[in-house]
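LAB NOTEBOOK - FOLDING QUEUE
OPERATOR: T.R.
BATCH SIZE: 2
PURPOSE: Compare the predicted structure-token outputs for two unrelated chains run back to back under identical settings.
PRIORITY: normal
REVIEWER: second-year student, initials M.K.

ITEM 1
FIELD SEQUENCE / FIELD STRUCTURE:
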Amino acid sequence: MIDLGLSKMALIGAVALIVIGPEKLPRVARTVGTLLGKAQRYVNDVKAEVNRSMELDELKKMKETVEQAAREVETSVSTTAAEFEKEWQNVTSTALEEPPSFPEYKHPKKKWRLKQGAVPHWYKARAGVRTKALSGAARVAKYRPHKFN
């Protein structure tokens, strides 16, 4: 860029004062300032447009790579699905020829109510099995030691 120091700026101002004159110098300085501002805005707009076009190109490249990866995944899934279907057909065709024999399922506690009811009440009382539910207050009253006066 142009190297404008304080001494060069003072020299340019002195020459402008002599050439333009003191009456017209403020108006010319304002006009030059607005023109420089417009030029800077134009340069900034051009830079922004170039950056946007570069980003757009990068996004297009990224989109193409993502689409290509998606196509590859789709083809691999479809080939895997086809292989699975073939294997499934082979397995099901052999399974249909000879059905597997599984033992019949029996629930482990199928008759637990009957078994619980089969124990005599006197045996439950002697073994300490609770047959009736007690509330907290009833339990405290039952097991609280009595005071003898």
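ITEM 2
FIELD SEQUENCE / FIELD STRUCTURE:
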Amino acid sequence: MERLLRLHPREIDLSLDRIERLMLELGSPDRQLPPVIHVAGTNGKGSTTAFMRAMLEAEGRGVHVYTSPHLVSFHERIRIAAKGGGRFVDEDALADTLIEVERVNDGRPITHFEITTAAAIVLFARNPADVVILEVGLGGRLDATNIITEPLATVITPVSVDHEKFLGDTIELIAAEKAGIVKQGRPVIVAPQAQEALAIIEAEAARKRAPLFVANQDWVATPERGRLVYQDEDGLLDLPQPRLIGRHQFTNAGTAIATLRRSGLGVSTEAIEQGLADVEWPARLQRLTAGALVERAPEEAEIWLDGGHNPGAGIAIAEAMADLEERVPRPLYLIAGMLNTKDPLGFFQPFAGLARRVYTVPVPSSLAGRDPVELAVIASEVDLATEPSDSVGDALDRIAREETTLGPPRILICGSLYLAGTTLAENGTPPR
């Protein structure tokens, strides 16, 4: 991995030229894949992918899955179909495939994401499966995963402002990059969108004559009395609520159901129900109940972990915390670390009046981590009480020393997938 990182001077350099050349030299494994579902969007890509995988596996289908970034181990990015459910790629297969693509690339410039995506595609082409789910790394139009020219279907989850340096600083520009995965004549399943984003997606689909299947027009997924009600032209499904926490997960589950039904994969209602119950997606409102860090928290504390890091994610996570507060009131404390490429003001705004205090911490696994003192100043601009801390563990110690007259606290560790990964590693509970 360290050697591959040296092949290109820039971590992100969006282009298809290098991956197209490498695919050809590898024998075009991108054209030897099982049917592909290609997923782009700003928020909800991973959860939507996790729902689709769980439902397909409940139906007995073999599913390869490619996601990014990873939380603790790179192997999390490449899930290989296996009997009884997929597994992370093993060390030998990953190392052998990376060495092969490195040899074929022959030292020429290529980004780390491009060459590892090539390795994933080689692995997927060589191992049997019924479906491949490919999650876009960044944007869509020039993302390495867009080497796929004939997907079974494309999916666009909610689009909001993020990665402005690479994708543009307006919702329209970002939506145009995401819509770059739309392919000629292939169905496009669209999650709820801001009107500006939807207009761009609709225009691209019209240009490509790609059939659209749009949330709240062609399909609807809503929470009703603690259940998920899904409806489209094929009928209504009255389903259990998703295992993943938060109102936004009803939307992500609906997007997954819409995609599987529109793709003609024939997933039964029973498999959809089982998938909703079985789904796992670490660091997305994940409840931490045991581990080294949990032991440092106050007795009976409720600890949640989420890697969301942009304003759209902030809204969704804050809504989930508000829902928990309504059911079981507890004082809410945030432990937050963010990268200096993100919008902390937009992320923190939804927590105003909801969080008792924000403890800001470094992001130890990234050189782009924002200084905790600077982050605390920004959080205070939306009237949040703030306190810089040295680490997640230090913040937990400080919360444990807080006045306890309000009862056991609810603690949310948030703001960065890098911070989430470090937290899971330090807690001793990495994804399995």
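REVIEWER COMMENT (ITEM 2): The radius of gyration is 21 Å.
FOLLOW-UP: none requested
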